[in-house]
Each structure stands twice: as structure tokens, then as C-alpha cells.
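Onboarding guide, step 5: your first structure request.
Type a short instruction followed by the sequence, for example:

Predict the 3D structure of this protein.
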Amino acid sequence: MKRVIVDTGKIGLVFKRGNYNRVITEGIHWLSFFEEVKEYDMSKPFYPSVELNILLNDKNLANYLTVVEVKDHEIVLQLENGNFKNVLVPGRYSYWNGATIFSFIKVDLSKIDIPENIDLNMLLRKEVISYVRVYIVESFEKGILYIDGRFEKVLEAGIYYFLKNATVISVTKADLRQLQMEISGQEILTKDKAAIRVNFFTQYKVVDIMKALNENKDFDKQLYILMQLALREFIGTFTLDELLEKKDSVSDYVLTCLKGKVESLGVEIKDCGIKDIILPGEVKEIMNQVLIAQKKAQANIITRREETASTRSLLNTAKLLEENEVLFKLKEMEYVEKIADKINSISLSGGNHLGDQLKDIFIPKNKG
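The system replies with C-alpha cells like these:
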């Protein structure tokens, strides 16, 4: 006989001539010389050296073990004392019932929904995340969930987790913020056959995600075409001069024309208008010439108006001088003063004295 001691937290399997015989627990045991003991730590998983089914035939040993069967379409999350430890893939696993509390969460991969008893922190572990599909719908978005190509539901803002499997899952999203669409460099003929290029803008917003994403394909491209056609229809009814005068009215026309059509796309037009009208080089040159001619004509009119006013003023002055001899003499003195400022000396001729000559100049004579 030989003495064998099994320590606390350990368990022993007794083999006789290589065959399993029995299980022994902590304490002192006496074995024959033909028996051997293999000890196992009960705080760790049990990895048997012989076929597990043979060992489980011993009811006493089976009471010390928890056996986990993982099928092909499953995974099992292994926890130790309530904390995540590992992911068990398809196979058979055994654990000791001892100081360490092993617990297990079975996940059916044939389904897409995450079991409610799986904590989010556990879901994001690197060992688990490879089995999970993640979709994010931002706060300014809405999404539509499709399962195997069929509409499932509308997704509000949030983070959504689904299990990975053969089921096809897709999420399409729409931005609910106000968006802007540019229609640039559109070549359009006016009513008088002038070829122009137009830059147009549209501000719009998605208001019905089901219509925008589920009932229409590429709703934004359809909106672009509708805006393009409405713009061509509007411009085609005006000559170039009329268009340049009425380009601000395009917004009201387009909004009225497309109201019912864009509702079927699930969008609402907030504002629109022409940013630029680009004329061909020769048309631009002609219009510049017309503008220059108009400005010259306006300048000539102003010049003639000023000349007429000046002539009228001279005529009125002449009439006043003719009717008032004193005023005439004052005007003469004014001109004499101006002349005196320009010359150094004045020479007077004749037999009269200087005073008499000045008197003749500045004192009017009686007409009687």
C-alpha cells in the first residue's frame, strides 16, 4: 500500500493499470502499488487524458463536473465568478464544480438578435465582437433595416447590434439635416435662341424616409432631374432680356411646379434660385456695347440739359441788364475789377481828366 495526499482545491482520478478506477477528493488516501493518481486543479477547466464519456459513467465523478455541449450553430460565453473569460466554439467542454464558479451563456448564431442577458461591455470584447454586426444611426439620421432583402423596421438614432450568420442584414440611412444640391453649368436655350449657362441651387430636406429610401431608388438623383427639367421649362419661356429681369421669380415657379412631385420622393424643398447666368462671349460683348451706348446717351442728355440751363441763365441775366442801367454799370465795374487784377497799369486817353473819364464810365447819364 502507498499513501497519497490530495490537497485542498484539488481532486484526483485513480487509474489501475491504465484504466480509470475511481475519483478521490482532498485528504489522505491509501492505494495499492498497481494504482496511480492524476491530480487536477478544480479552479481550472478539466481536460481529461481519456475519453470523457468513459469518465462520466462514474456517477460520483459526474457530480463533480459540469459538461457544456456547444453545437455547430452556437457559441458559449464562459464566465468565471461572474466575469467574462472566454468564447467556446462548437465542441464539448468540462469544468469542475468547486471554488471557482463557472457560468455559461449560450448564444444561438442561427438568430440575429443579441440575447438580453449579454451585457454591452461583454459584447464589445475582442473575443466576442467578431461574432457581432454593428450599425450606427447618427442623431441627425434615420435608417431602414432590411433582413434578407425584406423591410423590417425604421431605425431611430442609436447603435444596433446583430449576430453574424448566414442571414443578410443591411441598413440604409438618410440624412435628415437641410441639404443643398447644386446644378452647375446647365446649357439652356432661351425663347430667342440665346445659349446660356445657368448655375442653380436647391436647399431641401428629407421628411419621409420610407418614401425616400424604400419607395424610390436614388431619390436625390430623381430630385436633380426634376429640378433640371423645371429650370429648362422656366427659362425656355423667356427671351434673354426678360430672363435677366425676372430671374428672381424662378424660385416661386420651381417651388409651385415641383411641390407634388417632390412629396412622392419624401423630400421638401426649402429654397431654390439662380446663382449665376453665364453668357457666351459674343453675347457678353454685344451687351457691354449696348450698355456703353446707353450710358453715353444718358451722359449726352445730361450735358444738353446743363447747356440749356446755362443758356437760359445767360438769357435771364441779359434781360435784367437791359432793363436796369445801374445793374449794367455794376456788371461793367465787376469786369473792370477782374481786368485790373490781370494787368499792371491802365492808360486813359483823351482830353478829359481821369476823374471825368471814370465818371463817364461809372455814372449813368440821364436819357432825357
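Each response can be followed by summary notes, for example: The mean pLDDT is 84.
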